[in-house]
Amino acid sequence: MKTYLVTGGAGFIGGCFVRKCVAEGNVRVINFDALTYAGNLASVPEPDRDRHVFIHADIGDRGKVSEVLNAYEPEAVIHFAAESHVDRSIDGPMKFVETNVLGTASLLAATGDYFRSLGDAKQQAFRFLGVSTDEVYGSLGREGLFNESSPYDPSSPYSASKAASDHMIRAWHRTYGLPVLITNCSNNYGPYQFPEKLIPLMILNALEGKPLPIYGDGLQVRDWLHVEDHCDAISLVLERGKAGETYNIGASCEKTNLSVVQAICEAVDGQIAGSRRSAGLIRFVKDRPGHDRRYAIDATKIRDAIGWRPSRRFDEAINETVAWYLANQEWVRKVESGEYRRTRLGSI
After folding, report:
1. Which domain holds residue 235?
2. What's the predicted TM-score (pTM) here?
């Protein structure tokens, strides 16, 4: 059985990856998470000694990372841990620099020390995979797609911090020989997502009959990717990816924010007894500063080189996601901390 060190494994995407590994039973996961506001052990299986070991710690603690690496001797580090909400980065950019830039550098330094302690065979097999975002590329016009050669042009403190993280990872590969992989994904959705992001926020507000705030005209375009498809792709990149390479992960599912919210309204109305018109709750509000207009991923490389394709259709998956939040209100209550009550962030 392989061992993976997964940072941020109690968050949204990291938690999905942990659940996948534990369910498949062929990987022991060392789940390394600081349990900030968006991390919650209710999102992952109960820890146990054989398949899911939980370590409550920060990636910026180089000594702790080194201790864990040496104790469990993982074949791979999968780095999900990050501050990830654009609005929150506008309100407090320095936390994003501390975690996404300095934290990643500290993690890389500890991993580099561990890597150099391995024998030749184990070094050949080892991988460090950094999970990143398409937001590092900035904004597209009406045409075109982001590919792995697209120049970085981040617009927010969040995307700038993730761009810096990517550059750090590449630097550790080129300077120190650490065998790294980077994946840049489009917008994720699905169960267990913290309700500050667009889809869960709109679902929960619609279920409760609260206003559905949409930034600007709502015609910003995002390429939507189900979190389980994303985690399937990450597993394949780990298995088949070439060290030093970047792979963009997207589902070719471009939708405006407005159309996504309208789809959520239809799904909510269809699943709640009685006559409802959730679309009447839509409210257009002042746009977010520096709001990118369009993202879209060219996933040709991961399709051709790795053999990955998304398997979930948005119209079916958004209904399933609404049903999950409807059936898991207790989880929502547990993860909503005292500092977050679905209030707007990042408006300056």
Report:
1. 2-194+224-252+294-312
2. 0.94
